[in-house]
Design a protein that fits this description.
Layout lengths: L3 E6 L20 E2 L3 E2 L1 H11 L3 E5 L5 H10 L11 E5 L13 H6 L2 H5 L5 E6 L2 E3 L3 H10 L4 E9 H4 L3 E5 L5 E6 L13 E12 H12 L8 H9 L5 E5 L17 E3 L3 H9 L28 E3 L11 E3 L2 E2 L4 E3 L2 E3 L2 E2 L4 E2 L4 E3 L2 E2 L4 E2 L4 E3 L1 E3 L4 E2 L4 E2 L3 H6 L3 E2 L5 E3 L9 H11 L1
Parallel strand pairs: 1-4, 1-6, 4-5, 8-12, 14-17, 15-18, 16-19, 17-20, 18-21, 19-22, 20-23, 21-24, 22-25, 23-26, 24-27, 25-29
Antiparallel strand pairs: 2-3, 6-11, 7-13, 8-11, 9-10, 9-11, 28-29
């Protein structure tokens, strides 16, 4: 692994996650209360023994840069030639934004070459999964491959969003189509395709040659899945590496169904967070064999108050939920939700099936249902969110296809006169 450099592509706009990406890059969006989306790729790298990381940023990178600085740099020792470097567009080769995944790596080719690697791992920083990249590098070396592509089983309908591969019995790729309208299924499983995970291992010298050639090719999209990989299949050794899930259950056994999520839409993001709160969560964050790391804020433990008086309806409680540090549930109720750090749920408030980012304050008698509320939002006393979607639209909130209400950071919110009157009457 000392001769392997990892490049993490973390510059996407994440436009389908608006308004959560209005002020931050997609990999910096909070996930699971305590983490950021990029923490899963970075944890995989650290657990796999990959400690030479280049994180390529582009859009709204300040919060991502800050998160990596406070949460990740102390895991790497410069004296041992370990590093995690956040690299904004240098424009040393071209005076433009990245034109594709291959172009992003090409424009930073000097930073990679400087380390004189034998192999280069390229992956995205915006997916949720656990994977040992070291096993993939070993597979790549054993097969003397020029390119190895991480492969995931997907349904035909799902595969339309990915690169789709056909392989021979030796795992060598013999066909590759990027986001095909009619994906080719596996020969023995008509409803299943072999999809690209967007994770690649390259021989370093081969990668440099291909990037330089692609940069001058007229009409190229400068994309790994759209150009480099299909163009190399017939002339070079290109292999598929089947995804080996490191996601274990409470007993330590690998879960039967492989867990990999592209949280590219608001509904996909919401469902992936909800995966965490089950009794036996689909994604196990409590596995000490494959820890997921992130920033641990220096704040007090969560606190639940007013619950000891059994004769009162005022009770601070959280059921089937994740509750982070610094949370105060002051007589309010939290059900099936993910609650980020420093959130306050005031008396008689109810939060159900929702995701609250850091610093959200839910007023007395407020009711939140099926919502994502961004950092620092103040919910007024008595306000109801998620109960009347038409009213939520009139307030300027975003409504997802599945009816999830999303309140952006910095949103100025006012309860209706009726909501204020109801809240006041309940306090009498």
């Amino acid at each position: 692994m000392n001769k392997t450099v990892t490049v993490i592509l973390a510059g996407g706009r994440g436009s389908r996650l608006e308004p959560l990406t209005r002020d931050r890059a997609k990999p910096a969006v909070p996930f699971g209360g305590l983490y950021r989306i990029i923490d899963f790729a970075l944890s995989n790298c650290l657990n796999s023994g990959l400690k030479k990381l280049l994180v390529l940023t582009q859009y709204k990178a300040q919060s991502l840069d800050r998160h990596i600085d406070v949460a990740w740099r102390h895991y790497f020792c410069r004296e041992l030639n370990e590093f995690i470097d956040v690299v904004p567009p240098q424009q040393r080769i071209a005076d433009q934004w990245y034109q594709g995944t291959a172009d992003a790596v090409y424009q930073n080719i000097y930073a990679i070459e400087r380390e004189r690697p034998e192999h280069v791992v390229v992956l995205a920083g915006d997916h949720i999964y656990k994977m040992n990249y070291g096993a993939m590098v070993d597979f790549h070396r054993q097969n003397d491959a020029d390119i190895t592509v991480g492969a995931l089983r997907a349904t035909v309908a799902e595969a339309r969003q990915f690169g789709v591969m056909q392989i021979d019995r030796g795992q060598r790729i013999i066909g590759f189509q990027e986001k095909p309208a009619d994906p080719k299924p596996l020969p023995d499983e008509p409803g299943v395709c072999l999809a690209s995970m967007g994770i690649y291992v390259f021989k370093a010298r081969f990668l440099f040659e291909q990037l330089c050639r692609d940069a001058t090719r007229i009409g190229s999209r400068h994309d790994f899945g759209g150009d480099l990989i299909p163009g190399a299949i017939d002339t070079h050794r290109v292999f598929a590496f089947p995804f080996r899930d490191e996601n274990r259950d409470a007993t330590g056994g690998v879960k039967r169904e492989a867990y990999w999520r592209d949280v590219g839409t608001l509904d996909a993001y919401f469902e992936a967070n909800m995966d965490l709160i089950h009794v036996d969560p689909q994604l196990n964050l409590y596995d000490q064999e494959w820890p997921i790391r992130g920033f641990q804020p220096n704040v007090p433990p969560p606190k639940f108050v007013f619950g000891s008086d059994r004769n009162s309806s005022r009770r601070g409680e959280a059921l089937d939920s994740i509750v982070c540090q610094g949370v105060i549930c002051s007589g309010g109720s939290v059900l099936r939700s993910v609650i980020g750090p420093r959130v306050r749920v005031n008396s008689f408030a109810t939060v159900e099936d929702s995701i609250l980012f850091e610093g959200v304050d839910v007023g007395r008698h407020a009711k939140i249902r099926r919502a994502i509320i961004d950092k620092g939002v103040q919910i007024p006393n008595g306000m109801r969110v998620g109960y009347d979607l038409e009213l939520d639209r009139q307030r300027g909130f975003t409504i997802s296809d599945n009816g999830i209400v999303v309140i952006a950071r910095g949103e100025r919110i006012e309860a209706t006169v009726e909501e204020q009157q109801v809240a006041a009457a309940m306090d009498v």
